[in-house]
Write a structure and sequence with these properties.
Strand content: under 5%
Largest sheet: none
Oligomer: single chain
Helix content: over 70%
Structural class: mainly alpha
Distance between the termini: 56 Å
Order of helices and strands: HHHHHH
Length: 153
């Protein structure tokens, strides 16, 4: 349990640090950290109970996309203010470091192995955001259609 609390605090702090680095509005900092923690907890639950870093990144990015859009509507700010810092915990920085290390050590097989992971994780994050945008657009389309049918014209 203590490990989970440390992870949550670490994700929140890393997100706030990156958000400050890219000059996110102070009004969005706390909610951006909450979006990141929620997305990372979804990622962690998927990775722990189902397995696979690609699927976990898709689900994590999807949840960050959904929570980010909800936060953006709540704060009346652009979605990118919440989504960009919230992605920091999902970015494959460790694998990218390994690619550079093995390139420098002239071990192309290991470099290619980690490069494949980087590409798969980056693609899964992009897929998660794409699915989140599709889901939200479909939700609001169905909501408009339902409201049009209910209101007499």
């Amino acid at each position: 349990m203590l490990h989970l609390v440390i992870v949550i605090v670490g994700v929140y702090a890393a997100t706030l640090g990156f958000a400050l680095l890219i000059n996110v509005s102070p009004k969005a900092l706390n909610l951006g950290g909450v979006v990141a923690v929620a997305g990372y907890l979804v990622y962690l639950a998927y990775f722990t109970y189902i397995g696979g870093y690609v699927g976990a990144n898709v689900v994590g990015a999807f949840s960050i996309g959904i929570f980010g859009m909800i936060a953006a509507r709540y704060k009346k700010m652009p979605v990118i203010v919440f989504n960009t810092p919230a992605l920091v915990p999902l970015v494959p920085g460790g694998q990218a470091y390994q690619v550079m290390k093995y390139v420098a050590l002239n071990q192309p097989h290991m470099a290619f192995f980690y490069l494949t992971q980087v590409v798969m994780i980056a693609g899964s994050i992009a897929m998660g955001f794409l699915l989140a945008e599709l889901f939200i657009q479909l939700f609001y389309y169905m909501k408009r259609r339902f409201n049009q049918k209910r209101s007499p014209s």
